[in-house]
Design brief:
The complex is a heterotrimer. Chain B is mainly α. Chain B is 66% helix and 0% strand. By secondary structure, chain C is an alpha+beta fold. Chain C is elongated. The chains are: A mainly alpha, B mainly alpha, C alpha+beta. Chains in contact: A-B, A-C, B-C. The interface between B and C is large, with 102 and 86 residues.
Amino acid sequence: MPEPRTIVAPQFDDAAQQQETSMLGMWVFLATEVMFFGGLFASYTMYRALYAQAFAAASHHLDIVLGTLNTAVLLTSSLTMALAVRSAQVGARRTTATLLVVTMLLGLAFLGIKGVEYYQKYVDHLVPGPSFSFSGANRHDAEMFFYLYFVMTGLHALHMIAGVGVMSVLTILTVRGRFTPAYYNPLEIGGLYWHFVDIVWIFLFPLLYLIGHHT
Amino acid sequence: MTNAEPVLKLPRENYLNANYGIKSWLLTTDHKRIALLYLVSVTLFFVLGGIYAGLIRLELLTPYGHFVSDESYNKLFTMHGLIMIFFFLIPSIPAVLGNFVLPMMIGARDLAFPRINLASWYIYILGGIFTLTAAVTGGVDTGWTFYTPYSSTYSNTHVITMAAGVFITGFSSIFTGLNFIVTTHKMRVPGLTWFRLPLFVWSIYATSLIMVLGTPVLAISLSLIGLERLFHVGVFNPAMGGDPILFQHLFWFYSHPAVYIMILPSMGVVSEVIPCFARRKIFGYHFVAFSSLAIAVLGFLVWGHHMFVSGQSIYAGMVFSILSFLVAIPSAIKVFNWTATLYKGSVIYRTPMLYSLGFIGLFTIGGLTGLFLATLGIDVHVHDTYFVIAHFHYIMVGGAVMGYMSGLHYWWPKITGRLYPEGWGRLAALIIFIGFNLTFFPQFVLGYLGMPRRYHTYPPEFQVFNVMSSAGASILGIGYLLPLIYLLWSLRYGRVAGPNPWAATGLEWQTTSPPPTDNFSETPAVSDEPYNYYDMEPVPHA
Amino acid sequence: MGRTFPLFPQRASTAAGQVDALFFFLVAVSVFFVVLIFGLIAYFSVRYRQRTGHERGEPTRTSIGLEITWTGIPMALTVVMFVWGVKLFFNAYSPPPGAMEVFVVAKQWMWKFQHPEGRREINELHVPLGQPIQLTMISEDVIHDLFVPAFRTKMDVLPGRYSTVWFQATRTGTYHLFCSQYCGTEHSKMGGWVHVMEPADYAKWLSGAGANEPLEVAGARLFTQLGCITCHQPNGTGRGPSLVGAFGRTVKLTTGETLVANEDYVRMMVLTPGVKVVAGYQPIMPTFKGLVSEEGLQQLVAYIKSLGKEEGAKTP
């Protein structure tokens, strides 16, 4: 099969400029994402300091087993994503596609486990709103914890869904033979995005699940 | 005029006539066409915001106004603020002039991500649709600042629709900024090092840093308000353990840097226009360039100066106060450098120059009155009064809008291939300058007297200054109407401009007016310092 | 239209003249720089205008000295403004000891004032000349702001938390009081008047319009009515701590942290008791949310403040 040409968009002088530019673009975009989540992290920090006791008590109601499992799932998916980029670098098309599919499946697994957790919270009356009930600490402060829990993990989950969408597009492009060792830009920048979503979870997990678990 | 002047003709093929048909405009990826799409949209929003302003000033002619109800008045100032800030000021120079001129200034064929550029316009329009929907279905009455718990719990207006509109448009801003940052880093022609860049590029770059890092925080603030309104739980309602002041911190963390988004591009325009019409290299190039970056960075550290009397700690107030004084210094440096550029220059009073000189004067007044607000002891008295309104209108209208008008006239020949009528240009500039000062200077007096802002009715002793202000507003309105008319007129009847009607330096003037779709017939190379006016021929007579 | 209109606000408090002095300093600095810049621009534009034989500008040479000068001088001026401003700001929010405390409740769209001696007012505030007055304020709904231009006094009024500001009037008369934080439909109508009276006239006014009981007395009554006295026995034998001399003291909580038992703490304990419990006590205090209004809370605060004062116990 003839090697597909690297298509350079007309505004660029060469493929190298195109590659560097798209990488920088993704980094700048990730910077905006940091600021987007940053506002929530700032709010969380403030309320955690104010209502330390209630937050610790509320945090104990989160399923640490599922949370840890999810963390392992995401870390593994970042590994498979990195390996996928590496496979593309050496032109192993089938391996690349397989690894992308595994990454996607792990992402879907994450979302599934999250869904189970959310459902559990709903059953336990821990969803903020009229049906919320909590004993053992100030109700309002605990409700604040769960509100932040749902908003922060919810926003993260939305980003995961987008990430899964990106993965499926990348998989299709890989299968169609779009990438070569000379051109695999979209995989690199897709990978960057995926790793970012992973890192956000790495911050969310201890802040939400591991309060007061040091004893 | 000599007899040997060549007859200038519009270039046969340029970006305007390269393709025809509505699809070629609505699906374009040409940064120049996208700039024109933005030009039309921001102008429409400016007119709408101006109508709201006109209604406000009409109502304030009398102390106990009767044209509109309390509720309607509260919606008028809210919509005026939201539309002017998010749909005019923030996009204006970056998305219109920046889009058009920045790639050309660095010798590129287009921006780094042309499709994202087009997407940013569509996102802007989508946000605008949400906003207009909110407007026609009853409007919003929270003030553009959306303070909680009024906006999150008490207001009965279409807050969510409006917040969605601003949220969406914010992404237009983010994508524009992202495009500019990456383009400036990666797509300069050989020889064009950072310190050979025109200062307009520096200021757009600094603006883009703010757009990219600040806007997401606004997005999350508005999302939290939306969630709180929808689900009646949240972080801002004190009845549920929330803190309304948290909103103020999150909101102003973006909205203060936002004002630098609105002023830095205008400063960039001035940095281009003054050297051109003083025929002299700008004084202190490096200082002006670094000042832009300093303003962008320091601008993120001063948000609490909107909250001195909010219940924030006194010590926090002190920190924000000293930083606010610090952020004023780079702006002062720029004003001095621009003024020094005129010294021993050869000054020409074309319309762009009149607007830029006006900018320096009015921005100086606006900036100095900012010091009053940064001073803790004085801010206690003038916070939330007309003093603040006068201050920010001096910067936004006397500064940013004048800068926009300067740039629009300066690059009009490049964009359209035609010159605007110079006599009308100067007349409009003069009318705008006079009308502006008459509108807003009395408001400083009103503010110190104690007239609070967002007041539908006011004590009768404040009427004289309110009438002065409203009179000024009508003059200002006429002033803005004139360019709308003569710029449109010039599209058909204006004199053909030629590639470089101002004998200006800069790569954008090395190509035809209007430029071809790819900007340059051959990629330019740069080996000179910028603003090399000493070696340029003089400006042709008007 | 009025035949006369003011150009400058009246000065009716100890702070007003000080604020105005700083204001005039800034005006002077501003006028100087405005005249300088406008003047230079006008002069340069004319003196160096383009004319035949003068169609080029001179080459530009950087001058680090000039840059440093016009950076340094503004910086120095701003430091002066900053320090002076901080001084006034601290004054504005540090009430002198012995200030008379008036409680304020703001709600859409009116002001309710409670004098310690018991008299209540709506949208009007009578105060004696020459006496420091501290306003302890809270909102029942959204954020408001109490602004008296003639006093140069302003402070946001928040829901859920007390905020304070103080002033001392120096001229008798009637002065505008405005709400200056946008709060909804009738924001611009949520105003009123401050009446500054000679102390003798004030005393007369205070005792007029029927005897109202002082805030502390009303608070004491509420304290019994709501059953607080059952647990908070003055001799400490109840299930809760004695509140005698407790106000203003630093207390240690069950969580180990310490705080000062101020107005906000009292209010929080009445409304959400289980959160910050004093060490050594059980979290069994019931909530009184919905059972006591903001005015009632202020009366309780006034009462608890007064406890221990008669016995000579010093509150820090």
